[in-house]
Amino acid sequence: MTRNISALLLLCIVFGSTSVVFGDHITLKNGDRITGTVISRTEGSIEVETAYAGVIKIPASMIEKIIPEPDPNAKAAEAEKAEPMAKVSAATAKSPDKAAETPGAKEDKKPPLFGNGRVFGMVDGWTGNASIGFNYASGNSKTSTLTTSLRAVKEGINDKLTIYARSLWFTSRNSGASITTSNAFWGGARYDRNVNKKLFGFVSYDFERDRPKKLVFRSIVGAGVGHHTIKNDRTELDLLSGIAWNRTWQADEKTDTPEGLAGAALKQRVNNRLKFQGTFTFYQNITDVNEYRFITDSTVSLDVTKRIGIFFTVGNRFNNDPPRTTEKNDFLFTTGLKWNFGKAK
How far is CA 171 from the centre of its chain? Predict the structure, then answer.
């Protein structure tokens, strides 16, 4: 008899330990804990089958929480799922640069400047704006003014190409004759190549024509270094310095002048609609320190829609030794409509 009772107790202990591993864990509000298998559940009570007391019924009001034992197969599936993620995390910790290669962690990298896209990338990827302004007056004052401009930027991984152009045409029809007092065109391009986050090198080409002022054509090739002094979401300020070669064709002569150049380019975004952009370039004649010139352009633009806006531009071109009887200073104020193309910023 004693042996039978001992065997029964041993059996209860074995089943009890097994139920701890595989059963549900019920915690009562008074702190007691019951381990078993929930076999039925109603709004008022649950029935739990235990290894040591059989089926017991517990009122729902007495239960604090029930923690079911996870399915061993589910545990294995979770482990298999977590294993590759752990490997990815370990690889990322060893090489942070590879984080961009994992799903969900891709960086928005810029494509090369050229080589991808239509026509070797020459067509795609440009952003910028084009503008036009026109003024017509009749009566006591008979004048016509037309201004146009274009600025396009294409950025690569470590380089950038900027193309720009402006034109001004002004004619007066007073006294029965039409006289064109301004027929000017300016333009150029600049290629920047980053050395690091702050320093970059550049090469540039600028040209200018103004026939009423006897300037047939001016060609300027420049190169130098620049510095990204400020660069954030709202403000960009670049400082430039270098050398240039100025070849100028006038009515009856041609001159070649080596020049030193210094400049600054500022872009300021006040908000998503209002923006300011200004450039200043100073040219010093290397062979004659008394001869210099500078160019400034400042534009305030207001976007009415994502693509269309209005602009106000103030430009100034100064030459302290102008050819013949022309004025030293050319001041220009224009306003009109502009159209944004490419990815709007």
Answer: 42
